[in-house]
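Field notebook, page 278. I keep forgetting to write these up properly, so this time I am using the form the group agreed on. The chain and the ligand, nicotinamide-adenine-dinucleotide, are recorded exactly as supplied. Prediction of the bound pose follows.
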Amino acid sequence: MTQDPARGTAQDGTPVSIVTGGATGIGGAISRALATRGDHVVLNDIDVTAAAETATAIRTDGGSCTVVEGDVTDDGVVAAVVEAAVAVRGVVDHLVNNVGDFRPASRDFAHSTPAQWQRLYELNLRHVLAMSHAVLPYVVAGSSIVNVSTVEAFRGIPASAPYSAFKAGVAAFTKSLAVELGPRGVRVNAIAPDLTDTAQTSRAAMLRGRDEELVPLWLPLGRFAEAEDHARVVTFLTSDDARFVTGHTIPVDGGTLAASGWYRRHDGKGWTNMPDRP
Ligand SMILES: NC(=O)c1ccc[n+]([C@@H]2O[C@H](COP(=O)([O-])OP(=O)(O)OC[C@H]3O[C@@H](n4cnc5c(N)ncnc54)[C@H](O)[C@@H]3O)[C@@H](O)[C@H]2O)c1
């Protein structure tokens, strides 16, 4: 774990925002969006090359950032990330706990192992607690935390029961911490993405042998998500526009949770909850 020597040049009053897993995918879009807004972004990522590329892109666009490489499930990395953020202005304005993964996955729960449950816990819930705990001495009135859960915290998913359990834990933690931190003027929210084209769940893998033209039938808004769709909501949640919003997990899912198993019929004649053939 190392820190990028090219430290950012945040000026007094510049919001300092931490984004874990901030190099690519949803986290990458969030890092870029917050930097574009003017925040100094402390970007943590395990992928050294990708983190350097995103940092370069941010600086090229006129933004400022500090890179802290390393695995956020390591408490030493958590401490280094917070130290880097506090070095800028002495406070942490916003924390985005983005890292999470449905892997290591198993065929079904019967084939899963305690070692897999442990790693899924570390990747999806434990570091959310560790990072939030570590920033507590440095958050101030107006600060916020945004966690990244999933729609599968609210809807069942086969072959990923431990992942969904830990992500449901993220949503529950979000509510309880929001209650605790409310009197300090600190808000805590989460987003619950679905079907986003990232390296973890690429559009190609999601479609895998399926007819691309069926996508508009599966989601009410008719398309898969882009990482930027989530970045926009996180930008809102970490802004003063959301100053009275706390304790919520907002689905950013194109309507899949609302539809909850309902699909548009292929013949265009209404909807079905029993998918039919073309
Ligand atoms: N993509 C989706 O459709 C989807 C759906 C629901 C929830 N989510 C959640 O959104 C979040 C981001 O997902 P994504 O699809 O962008 O993921 P991704 O795997 O495509 O990208 C994750 C980023 O985090 C970094 N990273 C991974 N493990 C890390 C670690 N231990 N420490 C530091 N950095 C690490 C990666 O290098 C990468 O830059 C996750 O919490 C995921 O569970 C995603």
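OBSERVATIONS:
- The longest strand covers residues 187-193.
- The radius of gyration is 19 Å.
FOLLOW-UP: compare against the apo run.
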